[in-house]
Design a protein that fits this description.
The chain has helices at 2-50, 55-58, 75-86, 116-122, 138-154, 176-185; strands spanning 106-108, 127-132, 159-163, 191-196, 206-211. By secondary structure, it is α+β, with helices and mostly antiparallel strands. The protein has six helices and five strands, in the order αααβαβαβαββ. A five-stranded mixed beta sheet has the order 1-4-5-3-2, with helices on both faces. The protein starts with a helix and ends with a strand. It folds into two domains: 2-57; 93-211, Ribosomal Protein S8, Chain: A, domain 1, CATH 3.30.1370. Keywords: Coiled coil.
Length: 214
C-alpha cells in the first residue's frame, strides 16, 4: 500500500512538474509574441510618420486626454486623409485576365500603351519612392500601401517601388503579400501600370508602379 502511495505521489509530482514547464513555455512564447507585436507597431508608426500621417489619424480607439490641440489642417488635407483611410480594397477579386502572360507579372490600365510595363521595367521612369511591406500584417500593409500611393502621387512622383517580398518568412512560406499587392494595385485608378522589378531592384519580391499625374 505504501509502495502504491509513493508511486502515485511520484507520478503526481512528475505531472505537476510537466504542467509547470508547459505553463512557463507558454508564458515565454506569449512574451515573445508581445515583444514582436510591439516592435512591429513601433516600425509601423515610424513608417506612417514618414508619410506625414499622425498616430491619431489611424488609431481611432486611442484615448486623447489633455493633449495639446494640433495645428489646424487645411480642409482639403483633412478630406484627403479621410478618403485614404476609408478607401476599401477587396482581397477577393480575380485579376488573372488583367495580367500579361509573359515571363514576369505586369499590368497596364485600359487606355495605356501596352509597352508601358516594359518601358517601366527598363527604367524609362526613375524610381522616386519605395515602400517595404516586410513584417506587416495584410491589413496593415493594405492601409500603408494606400497612404503611400496617395502621398507619392501628391508629391508628383510618377514611378515608385513596392517591396512585398517573396513570402519565405511567412507562415507556411506562402507569399501572402506577393499575391495580394497586385490585387490591390489594379483597384487603384491612379495606378496606370506595374511590372515585376528587375533583379537589382528586388526581382520577384518587388513591383515597379507607374502612377498618373496628380
Amino acid at each position: 500500500m505504501k509502495g502504491k502511495d509513493l508511486s502515485s505521489l511520484l507520478s503526481l509530482k512528475d505531472e505537476l512538474k510537466k504542467q509547470a514547464e508547459e505553463k512557463e513555455r507558454l508564458r515565454l512564447k506569449e512574451e515573445k509574441r508581445k515583444k514582436e507585436r510591439r516592435a512591429q507597431q513601433v516600425f509601423f508608426e515610424k513608417e506612417m510618420s514618414k508619410l506625414g500621417v499622425s498616430k491619431q489619424t489611424y488609431a481611432k480607439n486611442l484615448a486623447n486626454i489633455n493633449l495639446p490641440k494640433p495645428a489646424p489642417l487645411p480642409l482639403q488635407t483633412h478630406k484627403d486623409n479621410q478618403a485614404v483611410l476609408e478607401d476599401s480594397l477587396s482581397d477577393q477579386i480575380g485579376i488573372e485576365h488583367l495580367l500579361a502572360s509573359d515571363d514576369r507579372i505586369s499590368y497596364f490600365q485600359k487606355g495605356v500603351a501596352p509597352n508601358v510595363p516594359k518601358l517601366l521595367h527598363q527604367g524609362k521612369w526613375s524610381i522616386k519612392g519605395s515602400l517595404d511591406l516586410h513584417g506587416y500584417t495584410s491589413d496593415e500593409a493594405k492601409q500603408l500601401l494606400v497612404l503611400f500611393l496617395n502621398e507619392q502621387r501628391k508629391a508628383g512622383h510618377r514611378a515608385v517601388r513596392i517591396i512585398h517580398g517573396k513570402g519565405f518568412g511567412s507562415v507556411g512560406r506562402k507569399p501572402v503579400l506577393k499575391e495580394k499587392v497586385p490585387v490591390w494595385l489594379v483597384q487603384k485608378k491612379e495606378v496606370l501600370a506595374f511590372v515585376q522589378a528587375p533583379e537589382h531592384d528586388g526581382g520577384e519580391g518587388a513591383l515597379l508602379v507607374l502612377l498618373s499625374a496628380p
